[in-house]
Amino acid sequence: MSLLVERKRDSAFEEIQHTKEWLRSYQRVRAATEALCAPLCKEDYVVQSMADVSPPKWHIAHVSWFFEAFLLTPFHASYCPLDSAYDFLFNSYYETHGTPFPRPHRGLISRPTVDDVYRYRAHIDNAMVELLSNPPAEHVNDILHRVELGLNHEQQHQELLAMDIKHILSQNPLFPVYRSDLSPASDQQAEPLRWHDFAADVRYIGREVHADGFAFDNETPRHRQFVEAFQLSSRPVTNAEFLAFMQAGGYEHPDYWLSDGWQTVKQAGWKAPLYWVKRDDGWYHMTLGGLVPVDWQAPVSHVSFYEADAFACWAGARLPTEAEWEVAAREANSEGNFIEQDYLRPVAGGVSEDAPGQMFGDVWEWTGSAYRPYPGFKPLPGSLGEYNGKFMSGQMVLRGGCCATPQAHIRATYRNFFPPHARWAFSGFRLAKDV
Ligand SMILES: [Fe+2]
Q1: What confidence tier does 4 reach under pLDDT thresholds 50, 70, 90?
Q2: Ligand 1 centroid, distance to 151 Cα (angstroms)
Q3: Disulfide-capable partner of 188 in 91, 111, 147, 348 (CB 3.0 to 4.6 Å)?
Q4: pLDDT tier at 13, thresholds 50, 70, 90
Q5: Would you kindly state where each structural domain of the chain is located, as residue ranges?
Q6: What is the CATH number of domain 3-170?
Q7: What's the CA-to-centroid distance between 404 and ligand 1, angstroms?
């Protein structure tokens, strides 16, 4: 046997092993989505509490559609759709794939039923097992890249599911409990706020296009930015600190607010973070474990960019840029309160000495940076190019993941984005200062 044939055989064996690993990852991520939905009752699955929220039924169908549209249809030679109408119903926003069903109307789709959608999920899973068990050799690389993207997409929807379930349940004045067996919050105190100094320097920001490990296209390419000297706070702003802003008239003084923010405060009647409820004996917070007293030591969450920016103005500071955040995050501990910790709410962090703490997990941190492409950014080719690039207007970048993010899903270069008024995400912030 020639060396060349032997090498080819070795690499084919490695490919099979590699494909088997991806099949296990696929099954693990898909099972995590179903575990997240297990506490729901059928009635919970169909509610759309606002246009930004999708019914859980839609989420679990849409993440399956992603595998159908971008893997099974192009690469599984004998794939047969369960229902061809699903390609329209569960397409989120891929205009080059087909006309998507309007987002604000997702809650009006009572058929297919929840059971139908789980049958669809099983149909996709069976076909994906077939595809990954015997992938066409000429497309193995494309298939594995798309499986990786599809699994990261599904993890994003796991976090969206937690956010959306919370918003759906919060519409009910009885404050229903999603799960009563979540990890109990500790009585840990937040550390006193300290400032960490970072010198002015040319910094490398973002990811190499072909770096090892997964990254979304919007994190690339790695590029240089000159970052002036700055200070970053040692932890996110806490509920106690945000209460001080409220008690100082933060929501009543227009001088702290951006114009759009002030208009929103007046129109929406904001007086506190989303999910805070005032009772005779104090402030409560609607959580996925039900209505509980606000944990004053925990990072404030469910605030908009406008509220974060107004607080920073009141406190004589500012929000960090995303480049500043990333510079600090590269030195920070990547452990944190993620979905695996099973709190599903932010909790007070531990003490950090040498670098800012709680950079990862707990709350997505608003930055002062608009969500725009990095120099040299190129979206993925084809319809998948619609994944991130077309949303680069009118949104602000958030960093670090939250208590509903799978730990393996987050990294220092990860760029999340929401419109500045949005507050149904687990969104908080930390402060920065010029030196
Ligand atoms: Fe999606």
Answers
A1: very low
A2: 11
A3: 348
A4: low
A5: 3-170, 195-434
A6: 1.20.120
A7: 16
Q: Give the pLDDT confidence score for residue 1 in this predicted structure.
A: 37
Distances in Å between the Cα of 71 and the Cα atoms of 26, 271, 308 are: 13, 47, 40
Q: What is the pTM of this model?
A: 0.95
| Domains 3-170 and 195-434 are alike in CATH topology | no
Q: How far is the CA of 47 from the centre of ligand 1 (A)?
A: 18
Residue 217 alpha carbon to ligand 1 centre in Å? 15
Over residues 16-43, the pLDDT tens digits come to: 778 888 999 999 999 999 999 999 999 9
Gap from CA of 161 to ligand 1 centroid (Å): 11
Give the per-residue pLDDT at 6: 46
Q: How far is the CA of 390 from the centre of ligand 1 (A)?
A: 14
How far, in Å, are 72, 75, 84, 405 from residue 80 at the CA level? Answer: 9, 12, 9, 33
Residues around ligand 1, an ion, CB closer than 5 A: 92
Which superfamily, per CATH, for 195-434?
paralog of FGE (formylglycine-generating enzyme) (3.90.1580.10)
- For residue 331, the CA-to-ligand 1 centroid distance in Å is 31
**Residues 410, 416, 417: CA angle, nearest 5 degrees:** 170
Residue 7 pLDDT > 70:
no
pLDDT at 400 over 70: yes
